[in-house]
Amino acid sequence: MTQSTPAGSAANRTRSPAPTFFSVASTRHDATGEADCVVPKIGITIYGCEKDEAALFRQMAPRFCAMPTITGNAVSEANIEQAPGNRCISISHKSQISGPILLALGQAGVSYVSTRSVGYNHIDMRCAESLGISVENVVYSPDSVADYTVMLMLMVARNAKSTISRSQVHDYRLNDRRGKELRDLTIGVIGTGRIGAAVMARLRGFGCHVLAYDPRRKTSAEYVQLDLLLQESDVVTLHAPLTADTHHLLNRPRIERMRHGALIVNTARGSLLDTQALLEALESGRLGGAALDVVESEEGVFYSDHRRGSIENQLLLQLQRLPNVLITPHTAYYTEHALSDIVESTLSNCLRFERGAAWAG
């Protein structure tokens, strides 16, 4: 099974360059300048595709000799018929890909799944492997998430939610709580892959003291054990992948070890945090605040309009009521630059797989 791990680091750059993608060379252009493939076009079914993604897929597909079938519906057993004849499909991180769906895809002839995300936690990877279905993620510039992380960090450190809420009802008094300057804080970064490294590069510009934790040391950061990082950090920011080992990485005992009044930022995966334990620590004043772009059980809530409907995720609702908690709907990655990278990487992945399959055959 293919499981690509993005390479490279943004630790020593102000701006990370866009990743380099594999592009088809067997093309020519006609008199109108349009791409004319001299190899058979590859078919790819794009599931869960938003309008802005669809426009980019249509724009870029000719360069990769790709013929995309695009649907806004998430892949399911009910719409597998859109995949027959295409060995490659692309899915969104918003879709849960269970064993039965993978089985149906395999029976329809699908042998490659490109997920438009860095993480795999929404896919039953064991089942995919048992069925011989290759799964690969995309590579995109980490700057989108890194910028957003620092923005959330600044907002929670300066009590922005309370200040903005009061200003919107014309209450312009100073906040009851004074803000904190990042240069005075120790920031603990958990996970130092491409995004974590890019966050640390930005924090150095603020003059912060940065501590890092990662089982695999990938940068020149000041690495410490997790417990020490939690005890010494004023802000803890999460950038680890979600696996069986990292589920509830910040559980109740670890949250209790954190510095009193510390802040938590999470732009990685909601289940890295024990949400119930987080809520209790915030309500008791043990923690000073949180900024969350991801939450547990966000599926079915985020990316939908619930203004006229009910939300069953009670922990999310309780968190949102707190004046020192910022919640945004898993949008840190969502920039023009990153979305273009994601689409290009998806097409590149599928072309590479198809060429490899052809050569192997």
Describe this structure in words.
By secondary structure, the chain is of the alpha/beta class. The chain folds into two domains: 27-140 and 335-360, NAD(P)-binding Rossmann-like Domain (Rossmann fold, 3-Layer(aba) Sandwich), CATH 3.40.50.720; 143-327, NAD(P)-binding Rossmann-like Domain (Rossmann fold, 3-Layer(aba) Sandwich). Helices cover 33% and strands 14% of the residues. It has helices at residues 51-60, 99-107, 125-131, 143-157, 160-168, 194-206, 226-232, 252-257, 275-284, 314-321, 336-360, and strands spanning 27-29, 35-37, 42-46, 66-70, 88-91, 112-115, 134-136, 186-190, 209-213, 235-238, 263-266, 289-292, 325-327. The strands form three sheets. It has a six-stranded parallel β-sheet with strand order 9-8-10-11-12-13, with helices on both faces. The chain has a five-stranded parallel β-sheet with strand order 4-3-5-6-7, with helices on both faces. Strands 1-2 form a two-stranded antiparallel sheet. Helix 4 (143-157) crosses helix 6 (194-206).
